[in-house]
Design brief:
The complex is a heterodimer of chains A (about 475) and B (about 120).
Chain A lengths: L2 H6 L1 H19 L6 H21 L5 E3 L4 E3 L1 H27 L7 H17 L3 H19 L6 H32 L4 H10 L4 H19 L7 H8 L2 H26 L4 H24 L4 H17 L8 H32 L15 H4 L1 H15 L5 H15 L3 H27 L10 H19 L2 H12 L3
Antiparallel strand pairs in A: 1-2
Chain B lengths: L5 H24 L30 H23 L1 H28 L7
Helix pairs in contact in B: 2-3
Classes of the chains: A mainly alpha (about 475), B mainly alpha (about 120).
Chain lengths: ~475, ~120
């Protein structure tokens, strides 16, 4: 063990230690000073963000005998995950007080989950991938059930836990088969054994397929999406916001790392499968979302549909040039999705006055008159999720579609474009409700929440006008991946 | 290579067959003279008290968590204690680092009242 080893996982270590201290602080802090914990949690996340940014200039470095790495990819994702954490804290702060779920374990659990996500981005060994998956999932199971006298929340927690455990089983079995096929769980050694021809390819394909199922659960891709609407609806909205952005990004981080780095030899077998998965996810998510009237369920199905667009990045894996662009496009789109998702969940939190009654789409009527800035921000997020200008969502979709077309899968891009048109129906219905219908929505005014929503909206618009530095960063991040 | 597994497959087959034959023969030719006491659920010979699907005090989970906490600690402590001299200070500090999270978990449970039964 050397200093480099520790420097590689310094952000994860720091965040974990910070979360532990936070857990102890809660025990010794008087009840009246609970709000202080949110500030401490935000401080820890900001500190870790600073360290991650400072490390981003450094070169590729493996640590702990190749179990973890630090590279451009992990740096990009670390920054994204820490922003997710900060958004999560900002959205939770007042909401938890209102919902009377201000229990001290909330922020430590949130921080542990972020640490797990960061470890996921840095994992270079399937064992660490699994460890990170569990570290990020366990806190989410607990957080889903955090409003526990409410039966819906308990149901959400239990459902998420059972299906998540089931998915973990798939991942472990996939790891076992991969190990059996290649003789190693180390991603680099798996690649080497495939290159040397000593790997058992059918077994490796089976392992990769099981891993795909496990990660498919986490990102809510279509045959494995059943838990999503119920869990998203039942969990406290602040948790849902964090889960929708964070868990999905982490799932894609694992997919990109494992399938990008370890299984390129299987690309020819897996890429049609991925393309079909993406197409089905886009079609199903968008079509079901149209029929939803409950706001949380609609956003849940929308997040399933968004997973479909992200899965498109795996379709052109056979063509070298398109592959890099596709993965860079996926990272870019993940950022756009994180901002838009957090923003729209934030608006839901601002409008959710009665916590036992679910917010419906009709509750948005008249928001433009009542609170024009909030309505404007929501419009930006809806446009971004649809993929209309002037938002990051459009830029991300253009990058993804271009990569898919260059990869020779025009039909997939056509499905993507057509389902985007379908999605416009339910996203823009909210905009129509806000601006053209009369109504008296009750809006909670909360500084942190409004700041988070505003920041997400401004970044979504401004960066979309000049997205090239961001895309270059994403391209730089994936350069070393293959 | 698959032939190496033939012995295991035979073993599984024979075991399954023996089990099936025993159950089938028993149910075909065995005498059936049921009475109330015989049909009771088997609870080590005692008369059962209440139905089988009873509610269990869930506070046992805290004991379970505590058990896991210290069990894992002991599992790691024993080999470390045996190889203590060879590992030296490196081993000592590694053990300290390992124990801090467990200690945090313990303090958390203690302060939350997990050690009090009532």
């Amino acid at each position: 063990m050397t200093i480099t080893d520790f420097s590689v996982i310094l952000p994860v270590t720091l965040l974990t230690a910070w979360a532990s201290i936070l857990l102890l602080a809660e025990l010794f802090l008087p009840r009246a000073q609970r709000p202080f914990l949110a500030l401490l949690a935000a401080l820890g996340l900001a500190l870790t963000l600073g360290i991650s940014l400072a490390q981003s200039a450094q070169e590729f470095a493996p640590g702990f005998g190749g179990m973890v790495v630090r590279d451009g990819f992990s740096n990009f994702l670390n920054v994204l995950f820490l922003l997710t954490g900060l958004f999560g804290v900002a959205l939770s702060y007042r909401y938890n007080q209102r919902a009377q779920i201000e229990r001290g374990e909330y922020y430590p659990l949130l921080l542990f989950s972020v640490a797990g996500m960061m470890l996921m981005g840095q994992a270079a060994d399937l064992i660490v991938v699994f460890l990170a998956l569990e570290l990020l999932s366990f806190p989410l199971y607990i957080l889903s059930a955090f409003a526990y006298p409410r039966p819906q929340s308990e149901e959400a927690g239990l459902k998420y836990f059972l299906l998540g455990a089931f998915a973990s089983g798939f991942v472990v079995y996939g790891i076992a088969l991969t190990f059996g096929a290649s003789g190693s769980t180390d991603l680099a050694r798996i690649v080497a054994s495939v290159a040397a021809g000593s790997a058992n390819l059918p077994l490796l394909t089976a392992g990769a397929g099981l891993l795909l199922v496990g990660f498919g659960f986490k990102v809510a891709a279509v045959p494995f999406h059943m838990w999503t609407p119920d869990v998203y609806q039942g969990a406290p909205t602040s948790v849902t916001a964090f889960m929708a952005a964070g868990a999905k990004t982490a799932g894609f981080a694992a997919l990109l790392r494992v399938f990008g780095a370890a299984f390129p030899a299987l690309a020819a077998d897996l890429s049609p499968l991925m393309a079909i998965l993406a197409a089905v996810t886009m079609l199903f998510g968008n079509l079901i979302a149209v029929a939803q009237t409950d706001m949380k369920r609609m956003l849940a199905y929308s997040s399933i549909a968004q997973a479909g667009y992200l899965l498109m990045a795996f379709a052109p894996f056979e063509i070298e040039a398109a592959r890099t662009m596709a993965v860079a496009g996926a990272l870019f789109y993940l950022l756009a999705y994180t901002l838009a998702s957090f923003g729209s969940w934030g608006v839901v939190i601002a409008l959710e006055k009665d916590l036992d009654r679910h917010l419906s789409i009709g509750d948005f009527a008249g928001l433009a008159r009542r609170s024009p800035w909030l309505a404007a921000a929501m419009t930006v997020f809806m446009l971004s999720l649809t993929g209309l200008p002037p938002t990051l969502g459009l830029v991300g979709k253009i990058y993804l579609f271009r990569a898919v077309i260059e990869g020779g899968m025009v039909w997939l891009a056509v499905i993507g474009a057509l389902t985007s048109v379908v999605s416009a129906f339910y996203y823009l219905r909210i905009v129509v409700n806000m601006f053209m219908r009369e109504g008296e929505p009750a809006v909670e005014r909360e500084w942190w929440l409004e700041f988070a929503i505003g920041a997400a909206a401004v970044v979504t618009v401004v960066v979309s006008l000049w997205p090239f530095p961001l895309f270059e960063w994403a391209e730089w991040a994936v350069m070393k991946l293959f | 290579m698959l032939l190496e597994y033939a012995a295991i497959a035979t073993m599984i087959l024979v075991t399954a067959l023996v089990a099936v034959i025993a159950v089938v023969l028993g149910s075909l030719f065995g005498p059936k003279r049921p009475h109330a006491r015989k049909l009771l659920p088997y609870e080590s010979g005692m008369t059962p008290i209440g139905p089988g699907t009873r509610r269990v005090p869930v506070r046992f989970y805290l004991i379970a968590v505590l058990f896991i906490l210290f069990d894992i600690e002991i599992i790691f402590f024993l080999p470390w204690a045996i190889a203590f001299r060879e590992l030296g200070w490196y081993g000592f500090w590694a053990m300290v680092v390992f124990n801090i999270p467990i200690l945090i978990g313990f303090i958390y449970e203690w302060k939350k009242g997990g050690l009090e039964w009532e």
